[in-house]
Amino acid sequence: MSRSIPWVLSEIVAPALQQVLPDDPMARLQLIRCRSPYAGRDATPDAIQVEIDVSGEGFVYTAYDPLTFSTADDARERLVSELADFVAESRFGWGQLRA
Description:
99 residues; alpha+beta; 34% helix
């Protein structure tokens, strides 16, 4: 089942961003419909990729992929984990999320 970009933004991306980047240091957020990396070349683009630029550092992640999607909660938690790694390894958040 394909989901809309507004659904992915409200159910997965926005809550994950609020949790990991509560001070909103983002310069750019873009959601793009793309082909699943697990689908063939001729497949319909029905995955949704999030691209974020924070202080000149880029983050790209497939936030929704119908071939691997289970629940919105699961997708959100995976995005939170990836964002936390991104922030911990970035120059702007160095040490911010390190234990």
